[in-house]
Amino acid sequence: SAIYELSCEAYKHLGKTSNYYWIDPDGSGTLGPLKVYCNMTEDKVWTTVYHDLQMQTSVGGNSPEKLSVLQLNYSATMDQISAITSSAEYCEQFISYSCKMSRLLNTPEGNPYTWWVGKANEKHYYWGGSGPGIQKCACGIERNCTDPKYYCNCDADYKQWRKDSGMLSYKEHLPVSQVVVGDLDRPGSEAKVSVGPVRCQGDRNYWNAASFVTSSSYLHFSTFQGETSADISFYFKTSASDGVFLENLGNTDFIKLELKSATEVSFSFDVGNGPVEIVVRSPNPLNDDQWHRVNAERNVKQASLQVDQLPLEVRKAPTEGHTRLELYSQLYVGAAGGQRGFLGCIRSLRMNGVTLDLEERAKVTPGVKPGCSGHCTSYGMYCANGGKCVEKYNGYSCDCSKTAYDGPFCIKDVGAFFEEGMWLRYNFHSPGTSVKDLVSRTLLSSADPEITAPDLSLNKEELSFSFSTTKSPCVLLYVSSYTPDFMAVLVNPTGNLQIRYNLGGTKEPYNIDIDHRNMANGQPHTVNVTRNGRDIMLQLDHYPPTSYSLPATSDIQFNSPKALFLGKVIEIGKIDQDIYKYNTPGFTGCLSRVQFNQIAPLKAALRPTNASSHVHIQGELVESNCGASPLTIPPMSAATDPWHLDSASADFPYNGQAIGDGVNRNSAIIGGVIAVVIFTILCTLVFLIRYMFRHKGTYHTNEAKGAESAESADAAIMNNDPNFTETIDESKKEWLI
């Protein structure tokens, strides 16, 4: 059974992020898996296959040969790349020719000096930015070539460097396997060629689906050719408890896949030795309207059936007897003669590596609809941080508009760097509207749209954000109101965090002080504050949540909220004395994913949304994830990445997980435990030796200068100077005297 996914699209819908992955575009067909880079940052996934030709490869420089041939070797075979391009919605490859007295296509008439060879070894006489059958470069189509008499910049034959470049996007011709350069035999002729990787977007096969709405409806295709080997895979989704997925008949031979009951999938066939049936039983119902994957294989040695990640069921073939599956009828998908048909959706149906176009056939078949809805039931959990799953005809997307996050799965923090003196204000009411402004009311009141008071009051708030700074004191966040009520998150002069509430009814504001934790240490910290009436819950970083209670006399209504400030408070009227002091010089550092109830002020400032009119910024807001928490680890450089494409010896990882999860965690933990045990034994030995041979001489230490200011002993040694490694070595020598 396939251990690799069929495409980057499939990895994305397992919730994977951008990385190198092994994909197997034809299932268990002859092509074998290949390694590609999957870029998941956009709505549609990009699949990239690289080759070994350096960018700006120089050719010529007065070479005697008439032609210079540049060969491109890819990290995959041409057939493998064809499997990707044929199932993609769009593919492109960048190509560029820089020239000095070296003509390119020799336009408008004349034979081309340079051409490229694509799929099936065909020569092509068009260049990037142009299309098949048009012997022009991009400038010839846009009519802005260096010399208007020619259709390529290079064809003007100038002594200065010129360039023709653009995308080749006729996917049936890709990838580029050779570039043949011809005009190099004159003194002073020089050229440089660049070809980018092949990039493809979208996967027509993965979402190719049909919905069977009546039990008598089915799709028919030509007879399945699977005499000696059959490899069938598909996804299904249903709320019915039984139904036939597909069937193909012969005189007595047949092959059939069906849902026998809510928990059983059956694969049955007869090659002339009597019927064989393999059944996979699931502990959970399969008619839960979620997508389930079925993989059935049969060859002369054995047959197997797998459903989702359940154990593979295998049946060995008899050692003697018939081995060829001889079928005559058409292949029926969704029903079989006289039996109850399948109700629900089937998608991505592949028979021996070829995806059947269910969608096209469904368009002309009564009782069957092309496409399938309801992807969110299976994939909605990948929309994180309050992102909403949105159904699409072929797939789904995550709507992150009500969150402080971004990206295809709403997991990318939206944050910014604040320079000293910079601040941001988010007005809860649009300029020129009354306090009863409805948009703000629904966003502000986390779940109470039925508030009918003349002005808005909050009984509860939810606040979450992350920050990093090295300067204290400062104001991180402040919520003002049209009354004396306010809420503030501060870093006090000693670097500790303070949450301050003033809701009226108490002489002094109510403070929550988090002592003994320096928050101004330049590390990202996360803050989550939830208030419901009198109860306040605070969670800091990964510490357990702690609960607090407003004093009995305190009001529990936050009356008439007006604006939210980040970095500094610039508000008319009386301001709390401490906050006024903390305002200068202001916050310097990073704030990320700030969210107050349903308002995301930083995102409104950095992404044009309908809430952007509420934002006022003083200074320049620079987008940055420096405040993102937890610390994001930068990707490995090509030199240190063991999975980088250049490593010729890289073996296949044992399954289709992200390459880079390469380390087995269990062995890492065991190794760690062993290391700790050995270290402890060594330490004990050293102490014993010292104790037995106590030295009466003096014992000097290499005291680190600047130790007073350092936070810990380790820091003191490291602050000291680059010799700190030698210091440790010296002291080791002294220990063993």
Describe the structure.
By secondary structure, the protein is of the alpha+beta class. Among the domains are: 49-204, Jelly Rolls, CATH 2.60.120; 208-370, Jelly Rolls; 414-430 and 457-623, Jelly Rolls, CATH 2.60.120. It contains 11 helices and 46 strands. The strands form 9 sheets. Strands 1, 2, 3, 4, 6, 9, 11 and 12 form an 8-stranded antiparallel beta sheet that branches. Strands 13, 15, 20, 21, 22, 24, 25 and 26 form an 8-stranded antiparallel beta sheet that branches. It has a 7-stranded antiparallel beta sheet with strand order 41-40-39-34-44-31-46. A hairpin with a 4-residue loop joins strand 16 and strand 17. The radius of gyration is 34 Å and the shape is globular. The two termini are 63 Å apart.
* CATH topology value of the domain at 414-430 and 457-623: Jelly Rolls
Please count the helical segments.
11
- Unreliable runs, pLDDT <50, ≥5 residues? 432-442, 445-454, 631-663, 695-737
Any guess at the CATH architecture of the domain at 414-430 and 457-623? Sandwich
Strand content: 25-35%
Instruction: Kindly state the number of beta strands.
Output: 46
Distance between the termini: 63 Å
The coarse silhouette is globular
Rounded mean pLDDT score: 78
- Main beta sheet: strand number and arrangement? 8 strands, antiparallel
> What is Rg?
34 Å
The helix-and-strand class reads: alpha+beta
Helix content: 10-25%
CATH class group of the domain at 414-430 and 457-623: Mainly Beta
